[in-house]
Amino acid sequence: MSKIEHFMPLLVQREEEGALAPLLSHGQVHFLWIKHSNLYLVATTSKNANASLVYSFLYKTIEVFCEYFKELEEESIRDNFVIVYELLDELMDFGFPQTTDSKILQEYITQQSNKLETGKSRVPPTVTNAVSWRSEGIKYKKNEVFIDVIESVNLLVNANGSVLLSEIVGTIKLKVFLSGMPELRLGLNDRVLFELTGRSKNKSVELEDVKFHQCVRLSRFDNDRTISFIPPDGDFELM
């Protein structure tokens, strides 16, 4: 606990020297840090830890806090100190990431402190399920799914008018109100479109750096480009 006191002076010193890096070391301890608005989130390790796992965890922690407090800044940490402690206790155990899904955490860590009944401190079964992102027994009178495709086009053209670089960066967001444990399949119909317009049949839209939500069955996508998944309840980013 005393080691963290060396972090800020070290950060300031490196900044002045112009040698600031995302990983700072002091003796045997390494500080892996990220900055969010006016806060520094710092992970400390004395071992040769998996750095990408540590950074993924720090960004996931920000995501969870934002789900709870809407804005993550110094004031929201002070106002929700007890909940922050409870969340950190669930997010990590003995230095290993545990439950990092805010929807599951919200099942048993509520923001109304008076709702926390002692004696009922049982872990929701969802945490140990194969489908850890969705609770069982969800019921809706009307089954609905809303899909939003949000895209931005990046284009670089030189003075002669020829295209140097063009790409589309996008996300597919879903809002799901379905009962039970539904199995959804989303097909990419780019091949159908190419066949209709008479372009090469084996061509398909190139997807680069695709990042799926954990609910997607990756083996199905590799085989036939079908995105098959059991969705979480409510809002989430599919890919």
From TrEMBL:
Lineage: Eukaryota, Metazoa, Chordata, Craniata, Vertebrata
GO annotation (BP), single: vesicle-mediated transport
Entry similarity comment: Belongs to the adaptor complexes medium subunit family.
Membrane topology: Peripheral membrane protein
Keyword Transport: yes
Highest taxon, organism lineage: Eukaryota
Record's protein name: AP1M2 isoform 5
Gene Ontology CC terms, in alphabetical order: clathrin adaptor complex; endomembrane system
InterPro entries linked to this entry: Adaptor_comp_med_subunit, AP2_Mu_C_sf, AP_mu_sigma_su, Clathrin_mu, Clathrin_mu_CS, Longin-like_dom_sf, MHD
Keyword terms, alphabetized: Membrane, Protein transport, Transport
Gene3D superfamilies: 3.30.450.60, Mu homology domain, subdomain B
Keyword Lipid biosynthesis included in the entry's annotation: no
Any single Pfam family the record assigns to this protein: Clat_adaptor_s
Domain spans labelled MHD: 142-239
Subcellular location: Endomembrane system
Residue spans crossing the bilayer: none
